[in-house]
Amino acid sequence: MRVERDAVVLTTIAEDLLGGRPGVTRASLAGIVASYEQDTGARVVVVDAEGLSVVDSADPGGPSRSFASRPELARSLATGEVVTGV
């Protein structure tokens, strides 16, 4: 599935950002997710280990907010499993 492949690619880029890899910045990730949303209509939210947004394609430059209470994210944060949601 294309969405799953895209999620893997976006995850790799986000991991580079969160891991402190040189050359990957929050701004570059925000640009990538904003372009993805524009091309596909799909919202992308990247969260850290506590469920706080690092980048949200609905508000790329906006402040961080918690998504930890979302059932799919709470499950993923608790188990480390890959999950999906709407």
State the secondary-structure class. mainly alpha
The residue fraction in helices comes out at 40-55%
Overall geometric form: globular
Give me the oligomer status: single chain
**What's the average pLDDT?**
84
- CA distance, first residue to last residue: 16 Å
Q: pLDDT below 50 for ≥5 consecutive residues: which ranges?
A: none
Helix and strand pattern: HHEEH
Q: Report strand order across the widest sheet.
A: 1-2
Radius of gyration: 12 Å
Taken as a percent bin, the fraction of beta residues is 5-15%
- How many individual β-strands? 2
By DSSP (H or I, 4+ residues per run), the number of helices equals 3
The main pleated sheet reads as:
2 strands, antiparallel
Keywords, please?
single chain; 86 residues; mainly alpha; 3 helices; 8% strand
